[in-house]
Amino acid sequence: MNKTPAELKAEILRLTREFSALTHGANRAGADNTAPFVAGQTTVPYAARVFNADEVEAAVGATLDFWLTLGPEGAAFETELAALLGVKHSLLVNSGSSANLVAFSTLTTHKLPAAKRIAPGDEVITVAAGFPTTVAPIIQGGAVPVFIDNDPATGNARVEQLEAAFAPGKTKAVMMAHTLGNPFDLGAVLEFCRKHDLWLIEDNCDALGCTYSLPVARANALGFKENSPGIPGNGTHITRFTGAWGDISTQSFYPPHHLTMGEGGAVSIVHRPPLKTYAESFRDWGRDCWCASGKDDTCGKRFQWQLGELPKGYDHKYIYSHLGYNLKPLDPQAAIGRQQLKKLPAFIEARKKNWETLRAGLADLGEFFDFSLPTHATAWNSPSSVVRSPSSVFSWDATGCRTDCSWFGFMLRVKAGAPFSHTDLGRHLDAKKIGNRMLFGGNLLRQPAFVQLKKDRPAALRVIGDLPGADELMHRALFLGTYPGLTPAMLAYELEVIHEFVRSR
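Now predict its structure.
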């Protein structure tokens, strides 16, 4: 008997799950990872895709539907991500780098008031050490990045330099990342931005699932009212996800990140709905029309507009208000992302647990390494000294602010007097098949592209001070993975190899 299309699809998806269960055991989380581990032979990645048959089935199902371009799965993912973060809107794009490009471009639109629009020659404050595509859109958009230094202990900006970086009439925004899943000092940055009426773009690509807490009085002063929509409070603090505090935030769904679509990213509009229309325009060719793909005349005025010097009634689907791009992902990618979102809470907890395992396991090597701290933490408390609870893992500063990190990696800095360098350690780990990375581009001002830019166009960027913190991160820092696919055996092997390396020196 011939099967119906629905019956055939159900059979294909059943077989897809069976296939995935047989072939993707190494991609499951932690204890569910069924691949055999042989120390010294099996690679321990610093990051990798973590998924199961749910994602594979979703991708195949969406492909069988053959919509392909961003469509119903994408719309659902955007709604679910916005709800998770507590923001007004989220828009999918094809990468985190594209997300940064769209987010920055959104603030250059002529549809903003002149005083708020980022125009060529305007300045945007950023931080020196990090990933280049946090900064590249500023330069590509004709603005001037102003670099402040990093605090090596957190990897984030030295916020005490913000005022020195500010230029009245020129500074329009702050754009920086939450480094390795460690939120930057949002309290200080938000107060600075409110004081000078600046935009804040949060690059949240490495920090999905992090939270930042402000004391209620301080949050209220910044416009975050306790228990208003999307702003939960407990009477003492208001806590929100990173990516939900600024004006626009960005996300990456590249495989090493907190969830993956293979490639992909998102731009989130935190609280100003008109920015969604501008962001969509830059994402979607620069067009003025806001119809979704496959939709026509949602405004009811498709042939009634008169814009630019076009004739009245010119087809609104082919009117362009910006010099835009085509940066959409595919619908099967969004189908994968929707399944990943369901796993995100478990992924976050696994990252925290893995970070804590590495920190406790390396505590006896403090003579050789400086270890990272969450922003606002003053010390890590050893497991033997306290009863473990989220509040007791760290000691905190007097600001009343707290961070809860969804760690992208475990960063350590080789001390200046150690008998080895971070390059020596990285080379040894690599030889032992343990994935590791330096802190992305290190001090970006030392990278060939920026050195050449300074030669070609000295006024294309501005630097505050000598950037010793960024240089320290460049010369001394590397990080290990914390991703959810790490097994106890993998973590134990990493600790054994690092101890053996230190002993040998």
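The first helix runs from residue 5 to 23.
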